[in-house]
Amino acid sequence: MLGAVETRSVSPVFVGRADELNTLHDALARAAAGEPQALLIGGEAGVGKTRLIEEFAGAACCRGAVVALGGCVEIGADGLPFAPFSTALRALHRELPGELAAAAAGQEEELARLLPELGEPAGARGAGRHDEEGMARLFELTARLLERLAADRTLVVVLEDLHWADASTRHLLAYLFRTLRAGRLVVLASYRSDDIHRRHPLRPLLAELDRLRTVRRIELARFNREEVGRQIAGILASEPDPAQVDEIFQRSDGNAFFVEELAVCAHEGCSTGISDSLRDLLLVRVETLPEPAQRVVRTAAEGGSTVEYQLLAAVARLAEDDLIEALRAAVNANILVAAPTGDGYRFRHALVREAVSDDLLPGERSRLNRRYAEALEADPALVRADERVARLASYWYHAHHPAKALPAVLDASVAARARHAYSEQLRLLERAMELWDDAPEDVRARLRPVDYTEVYPPCGCDPATTPLRYLDLMAEAAVAGRFCGERERALKITKRALRLLDEEQDPLRAAWFWVQRSRLAQLKSHGDGWRELATAQELVRGLPPSEVHAEVLAHVANWSMVHVPGPEAFSAAERAVEYARMVGAREIEMTARLTLGGLMVDAGDVEAGLEEMYEVNRRTVEDGISAVAGRSYVNLPSELESVGRSRDAVPLLERGLAFTRSHGLLDHEAWVWGNLAESLYSLGRWDEAAEAATRSERVGQSAKPSAFHAKNRAELALARGDLAEAARQLTVARDNFGKYDHAPQHALPLSRIAIAVAAGEGRLLDARAELERVLETGFPPGTQRYGWPLLLTAAAVETRTAGLPAAGPGRPETLERIRLAAKSLTTCVPVWQAYERWVHAELLRAEGRGTPEDWAGTVTAFEALERPYDLARVRFRLAEALLVAGDEERDRATELLRLSHAVAEHLRARPLADAVARLAARGRLTLTRATQQPSADPADSLGLTSRERDVLRLVSAGRTNRQIAEELFISPKTASVHVSNILAKLGVSGRGEAAAVAHRLGLFPQWAGDRLAAG
Questions:
Q1: Mean of the pLDDT values across residues 137-155?
Q2: Could you give the C-alpha distances from 676 to 391, 636, 672, 685, 733, in angstroms and in order?
Q3: Do the beta carbons of residue 595 and residue 573 sit within 8 Å?
Q4: Considering the chain, what percentage of its residues have pLDDT values greater than 90?
Q5: Strongest mean pLDDT among 76-80, 709-713, 806-810
Q6: Distance between CA atoms of residues 429 and 33, nearest Å
Q7: What does the mean pLDDT of the chain come to?
Q8: Cα separation of 173 and 212, whole Å?
Q9: Where would I find the H helices in 778-867?
Q10: pLDDT-derived band of residue 350, with 50, 70 and 90 as boundaries?
Q11: Which end of the chain is more exposed for a tag (fewer CB within 10 A), N or C?
């Protein structure tokens, strides 16, 4: 019989792909040397991706590498959460049981979400911590597991068929490709490129990975005619007829799988009359099978990518001998192959399965899915335990049986959540909402209670006995959507829920949904979230204490602390703590106490506030409340920095990095890196600060940590004299914070940078306009850490632009506004007392009334602090004041300049170093460290002396002879003589022409930036 004859359709000879194979072997060699490798293989269906991977895997094994293969599993139209990673980890567990157990030690409960063999997953049904960072935590642990396994051996992880991947798998792969930095590891993934249409969910991931320089992408082309001939020769085990090669090449267009099918059909004489359509070509050999074998093939096509033998037997309903005979026929015809696990069957190529499935009649498809579901219900042991609920839900759904599908889909959503597969949980919950109205009332009445909705109160008195309601389902979906980053979908669900609640008197649940809407609006930059929070607050006003009430108050307090700190924020935080304690909401209590502690520090009750925050940090770390603990590692060091305790903040931040990294709190880790950059900057460790800011950008997943990173980079660029980079980073920061984020902690530092950049670029009026916008709004209580530096920068701008024609109008008013604004800022700690002195001294200097005594007091104040750059700047100002006062203090001025110059050179603070050098030159003082030798100066060719060059620089800046005399410590008459000599040497008739010549020759390219050097 035909079924007993084996058909060889795969060429035993590996054809072509030399360049692609060389790329893979190069990646293997690099990985073996300790450089992790990430590769993507794309190509149309049937082009030979799997064959290339098999060839490479075999070669890798021969070189001593451990290869773990995993494929994305399709059940109907659904993918199993994390299926390829679970399969690959299972293979590693078999291959390296002891090594994997050691690498996973201490994190077995979390990693069991991917590999149940490690034990019981953390967080059983309805329990355990779930938050936005839960999935990221699992991703981080998975990455570290692979790095540990690859520390002592070369490890190749292959993930096939990404076009079927579930969202959680795509997110985990992207995370690995972004973060793997160590280990002898190759991660290789393949996908079907012709399936990636414009709206395919894999498309954004491919675009993201293309931007990563660490990911190599291989696109497989079709075979040319010569390669097709070699492939056919391998299949037929003889040299083919050239005319036959031409025909097959023309019809297959070089697609390797089509070549196989056409070659076998031609060899077996069944190609005559075959339609050129893809489906008919793929079905032709299926149709030559005996009828029982065809039925088994059709049954297997609807079972999924791989079907277990016992499950197939239960669904096919054939006698065992007949079933084995039918399977043998399908295997001999190379339509089915044994699964790698040895306990089931899969199609040799997914294209054949898709063609067979597409050929099923609608009633036939639903009948087969119903049979699969019934068989699985009758004997759950037919499939792996970790796949059971997902497959049962898929079978019942595609069987079009709402009464059975709804509870099965809800059970699958619980299992997805337990694995942190929140994207799949959301998809399943949306499917449940789709099925809701079609399911019988008695079925809905028996549904399990609410699974996980944070503090949302389920409908009914007792959640354990009250049936699930549609509104409860929407609450679950809203939380899942926020967790997985599908914020638009979650927002739509939330809005729908609130429309439903408009018809009911249910203020508590409405308040909960309004809080969700506020959080989503802020995450999506659709607003600042206050309108929604205010609505929620109004809804719970007057209600008895509850978790929802406590959560609303905690959110109001936190929002107010960030946006409008003051008494109302303080009151909300206190009430949130009180309500949370009354209802036993431990996490909400810790959140509110952390907010309260920060508000106390900002209000001047520094020691008590810091003590409260330290206590929250200690308790949340001990109790495993990771989300609040992560936030405490952000807020507490920030408050320490705000009161000038940078040295205390750094070790706490370093502990915070270890904590957030180990718990996968990626955005928290990004904020910690950003705060570390700030504290290191204050301590004069600028290179470390730059690295911390860069790490913040790499780690963060959302826009705001990236904005914070850009702000830090802009600060550093300003201090080092790179105005263009500062301007660029300012734009990046504002774009990432978004148009709705006007929180003072973000807006005020960016305004300070904007003032400095505008003034540095010669746009004084823009700088004043920015200052005016800030002063119109005013400084909210507790924002002194941002207010004092801003006022200082504004005052310094006025000092450095004094005498310029454009600076005169409005200058006195601007100085007075700065002075009045300074009176509104508190000085509760030494660092802000020092800044108050600095601003006062700078204002007096701007008005021409400064004295050495003003600056001496400022220097004394900063000498008690650990802020070397600030100290260097005020020492520079004191030296300048001493030189203006006369020659009696030249030695003291010299020493101050030497100290300032040493710090500026060490920090590479070019504007300050240059300003010190110029002042020393004007005063004829010698610095202990030689200044950097300038390159060839165009002024030399004009015959200008050093003093004439100084004068020309000030002429170009618009200074009068009197102003030049004051700055260079010479008489106005001497200044006039220098100007006359300069005009003669330049061959010009006036000061304006002299300035134009200086500009054209680029004599003073740094002048614009130097104006702020001492500010």
A1: 88
A2: 47, 12, 6, 11, 18
A3: yes
A4: 47
A5: 709-713
A6: 46
A7: 86
A8: 13
A9: 784-800, 811-823, 830-846, 852-863
A10: confident
A11: N
d(CA 512, CA 779): 32
Q: Which residues contact 627 (CB under 8 A, 6 or more apart)?
A: 129, 131, 133, 587, 665
User: Is the pLDDT higher at 1010 or at 116?
Assistant: 116
Q: What is the pLDDT of residues 240-260, one digit of tens each?
A: 888 888 888 877 778 888 887
* Backbone CA torsion sign across 604, 607, 610, 615: negative
C-alpha 392 chain-centroid distance: 35
Euclidean distance between CA atoms 656 and 634, whole angstroms: 8
Directed axis angle between helix 890-907 and helix 868-885, to 10°?
150
Q: Which residues contact 548 (CB under 8 A, 6 or more apart)?
A: 455, 456, 457, 508, 509, 511, 512, 515, 540
Cα–Cα dist 516/340, whole Å: 46
The two structure tokens encoding residue 803: 């005498």
SS3 217: strand
Segment holding 79, helix H or strand E: strand 78-79
SS3 218: strand
Measure the CA–CA gap between 660 and 677, rounded to whole angstroms: 16
In sequence order, which residues have a C-beta less than 8 Å from that of residue 934 and are 6 or more positions away?
A: none
- Residue type for position 615: E
Q: Which amino acid is at 956?
A: S
Question: Containing H/E element for 185?
Answer: strand 185-192
**What distances in angstroms separate CA 93 from CA 56, 59, 188, 273, one per listed residue?**
22, 22, 19, 50
Strongest mean pLDDT among 204-208, 452-456, 558-562: 558-562
CA distance linking residue 556 with residue 548, whole number of Å: 12
- Which helix or strand (DSSP H or E) is residue 762 part of? none
β-pairing, 37-43 vs 215-219, is parallel
Please tell me the distance from the alpha carbon of residue 469 to that of residue 446, in angstroms, as a whole number: 11
CB atoms within 10 A of CB 505: 6
Terminus-to-terminus CA distance in the chain, angstroms? 94
Question: What is the distance between the alpha carbons of residues 880 and 969, in angstroms, rounded to a whole number?
Answer: 11
Q: Residue 544 has what DSSP assignment? A: P
Look at residue 1007 and tell me whether its pLDDT is greater than 50. no
Q: How far apart are the C-alpha atoms of 172 and 112, rounded to whole Å?
A: 15
In DSSP notation, 971-1003 reads -HHHHHHHHHHHHHHHT-SSHHHHHHHHHHHTS
Closest to 755 measured CA to CA, from 725, 783, 791, 724? 791
Task: Name which of 501, 602, 511 is nearest 552 in CA terms.
Answer: 511
Highest mean pLDDT among 78-87, 207-216, 396-405: 396-405
91 Cβ neighbours under 8 A, 6+ residues apart: 68, 69, 70
Note the pLDDT tens digit of each residue in 712-726: 999 999 999 999 999
Give the model's pLDDT for residue 613: 97
